[in-house]
Amino acid sequence: MSDPSFAPRPTLEAVAARAGVSRATASRVVNGGAGVRGPLVERVRQAVDELGYIPNQAARTLVTRRNDAIAVVVAEPETRFFTDPFFAQQVRGISKELTAHDNQLVLLLTEGTADYERVGRYLAGGHVDGALIFSLHTDDSLPVLSRTGDVPIVIGGRPTWPEQDPGRRTLYVDCDNRGGARDAVRHLLSIGRRTIAHITGPLDQLASVDRLDGFRDVLPEADPRLIAEGDFTPEGGARAMGELLRRRPDLDAVFAASDVMASGALRVLRTSGRRVPEDVAVVGFDDMVSVAEWTDPPLTTIRQDIEEMGRLMARLLLRALEPPAVEPGVPALSSIVTPTRLVIRASA
User: What are phi and psi of 190, to 5 degrees?
Assistant: First the structure.
């Protein structure tokens, strides 16, 4: 008795025979080619479903010139990627959008500049149709490397480099970092705080610079001792908070450039005997529920929709991969800046 698990896979010839069409017609339908009438397309698709036929990806790529695969490049080491909930939310949004369009996600992590050449070669090697790149630092050359292979890219965050080719704009998705920071500081002023400190993110990333600029927009004369640089980790937030308390023990509020850093700051304030919000009010940035609602006390923060930004990045890239629209009135591709909003909880 034969084992059904070893039954031969259905062939394209079998699909064509079941649908009553030629092999060439079946191939065009299965591999995404054009020029087949609607009723024949439906017959071939029905035959595919009935037989359980799985198209050969190599053959499909030859016809469509597409791999149906998108690289997600994160310019951070594995230790940060797998511990920071920000990345989980953003990749979840990207994955949902790619899955909805039957595309595969290929994750590429970099430990530093030594990995950029390797990743650049991969992007230029025809393995993927495009790339989503985020958490870039000012010294990153990944976008330049990816352009050498003419790979369409979308950046997570406003890029730091000037446009080299006026005819080829860099597409990106970002939130209103500067406006959100202004809202955070204005809220602290509105509840009577006057000695407001700021824990920045790493200042080789534009999001951190924008949030620092927003802080300075509202407090242009702020004492430089009230500003300390962190690194978007709880430990970095804790170190910065400790430094701020040593410099200005009279501070009565802190705006941290991420919820994760704010969680570290809260820990230091608690161990130093400062009550939150009675003695020191704290505001974060991101509104990551897994952090903001579980800190003690729950964290007032600036919300950016991280998962939706991931979806928008994927959507923008998939649109860039389509043939240029020729219909009048169809808008050109453009970068996206999403709004932020204040979410008030118990910490401020």
Answer: -65, -25
